[in-house]
Write a structure and sequence with these properties.
Length: 279
């Protein structure tokens, strides 16, 4: 019944909204949810597979809108409430974001099909989850005082290096936010700066990935497909707002260690699902 597909869409939207911003891998969670509750919008298997592939990427538009809404003033270089210096700093922030986006954008465009064919599988996701989970724990245990405590003090070269870390997120299960936050932390950024820059960096990356997927698939949709896509994006948008606010509140007093343990547990669950042929 179609009502069940609506429920699945809402669940996927919730999962996307939460996991996109926490360093725990949205891909790993989406694979698990899709394994137990696969979307079946169309009877034709090929058409349904193409739609689900597109849905998993395009739903990210909702998450992007959440960042734009929450940080609209900080990201708006035309705000009449900003001084000339503040407007200049906003433009500089955008340039830093674009510089950081270059490495992953170039590699993604060149090797997107290869990555999907070779690495997009549960085993890769599980390994990435566990490895990065261990790294989060180790780095938090050995972390030195942050040298970069504001976005203004984040220089272009450091932004580019954070972008290099983001390339690792092309490996499914690594987590885009996990890679950028981990990389920024290693490079001396505070948790607040690492998290916010990761949010802003998501805007061009997720928008580009969604646009690329739409261009490659060129799938025509009926009213049902459009409704499901919009529903998923709306749910992801609302949940993303809650997730981002919660994360920023959490890191004021806590570190990222808990996410490391969570990733390891999730990775073990994915491996168990593979061994028992659940996925």
């Amino acid at each position: 019944m179609f009502i069940f597909e609506i429920i699945k869409t809402i669940i996927l939207g919730i999962v996307q909204g939460i996991t996109e911003w926490l360093p725990i891998s949205s891909t790993g969670h989406m694979i698990l949810v899709d394994a137990f509750m696969p979307l079946k919008i169309y009877e034709d298997i090929t058409m349904n597979t193409e739609f689900v592939d597109m849905f998993m990427v395009v739903i990210q538009f909702g998450s992007i809108l959440a960042v734009l809404l929450l940080y609209f003033h900080k990201l708006n270089p035309f705000s009449p409430k900003k001084s000339a210096i503040q407007k200049k700093n906003t433009w500089i922030l955008w340039f830093k974001v674009l510089v950081a986006a270059l490495p992953a954008a170039i590699v993604g465009l060149l090797f997107d099909d290869v990555i999907d064919a070779v690495l997009y599988n549960p085993t890769t996701v599980a390994i990435a989850l566990i490895v990065y989970g261990i790294l989060f724990i180790v780095i938090e245990k050995t972390k030195k005082p942050a040298k970069i405590t504001t976005l203004e003090s984040l220089d272009y070269f450091t932004a580019l290096k954070i972008g290099a870390f983001q390339m690792l997120a092309l490996i499914p299960g690594t987590s885009r936010s996990g890679s950028t936050i981990l990389g920024a932390t290693i490079l001396g950024c505070s948790r607040k700066v690492a998290s916010e820059f990761s949010f802003f960096l998501a805007i061009p990356m997720m928008f580009g990935a969604s646009l690329l997927k739409l261009i490659k698939l060129q799938m025509s949709m009926d009213a049902t497909g459009i409704f499901i896509l919009l529903l998923g994006m709306i749910v992801a948008f609302v949940v993303s707002i809650i997730a981002i606010k919660s994360l920023m509140k959490y890191i004021r007093k806590h570190d990222f260690t808990i996410f490391g343990y969570y990733r390891i547990i999730l990775g073990i669950i994915v491996i168990a699902c593979v061994l028992f042929k659940v996925i």
